[in-house]
Amino acid sequence: MILENYAIAPFIRIAGYAIRPPFVLGERNLLDYILFYVQEGQFEIRLGNDIHLLNEGDLCLFQPGDVHTIKGITPTINPYIHLDFFYNPLRESSFVTLPGQLDMTPYTSYMQPRMHDCQDLRIPFKLETAHSSKMRDLVLKMIACWQSQTYIGVMEANQLAHEWLTSVFKIYMKPQTASLSPQPFLNWITSYFAFHISEPINVIDMARRAGLSPSRFNVLFKQHFGTTPYQYLLHLRIEHARELINEGVSIQKVSDYCGFTDVHHFSKTFKSIMNISPGYYRKKRPPGS
Questions:
Q1: Tens-place pLDDT, residues 140-153
Q2: What is the C-alpha to C-alpha distance for residues 188 and 123, in angstroms, rounded to an integer?
């Protein structure tokens, strides 16, 4: 299973509190996931060839395809949630399986992807973590929200299920390497130039803002933008100047608004980039532009 191939969109099918005297729930298979919390009592769970004894405070995760039996050894209270974690357009038609339902072949279109089949994710049946109390509380909140059966309540319950799964992934998923190295200055540099286009801007200030030395800033800037900070800023200023000229702003004011020291400096820079003077550009611009 490759997690990236599946959209996470929790859908709680049923949630509640089972209050029972000693009992046995016969063998069955699963199409969906079960969050199973022991509030009171003791359970014996046969899962495949393994037997698990559950006591008060234990929180477990049944996965799709888990063939199991549940035995309440004592009187028990157990909050539970049947849900899909991954989006399935047929989820409204899926169902909670009953004792004796073992062959899920006719219902494969309803079967949830099984997280046990993901190489980077190994979630035990019994969730014993330092965050057990938080995960338990999320389960109880999910049930309370879902049982309200209001639109917002159900929406909030599914949102809490997403939060619960995120917590599980953080605990049990293998650490992942970021695909891109962080380059914090790249996220703000263009808007920074645009906002300060009429002001003096120097590389030292920008490098300090990015947390880099000026030399390192220059290297990374050129790798990303293909030019130096100075040339990049000049082109932004000339592009802004063209817009102002097209709007009928005077050459003197354009020079001021675009951060040039004087009209001569502006005209010289404009001509070096556009190959015509600002005055000639004004005369030759299309009518109405």
A1: 999 999 999 999 99
A2: 39
User: pLDDT at position 212, please?
Assistant: 84
Q: What is the pLDDT of residues 3-49, one digit of tens each?
A: 778 899 999 999 999 999 999 999 999 999 999 999 999 999 999 89
At 47, give phi and psi (nearest 5°).
Answer: -120, 105
DSSP state of 173: B
pLDDT for 79 equals 97
Out of 1.10.10.60, 2.70.50.60, 3.90.550.10, 1.10.10.10, the CATH code matching 184-284 is: 1.10.10.60
For 73, residues 6+ apart whose C-beta sits below 8 A from its C-beta are 22, 41, 42, 43, 44
- Tokens 């989006």 label which residue? 87
Distance CA 86, CA 280 (A): 62
Rounded Cα gap, residues 250 and 139, in angstroms: 66
Amino acid at 156: E
CA distance linking residue 271 with residue 279, whole number of Å: 10
CATH superfamily name and code, 3-172: Regulatory protein AraC (2.60.120.280)
Find out whether 22 and 75 touch, Cβ atoms under 8 Å: yes
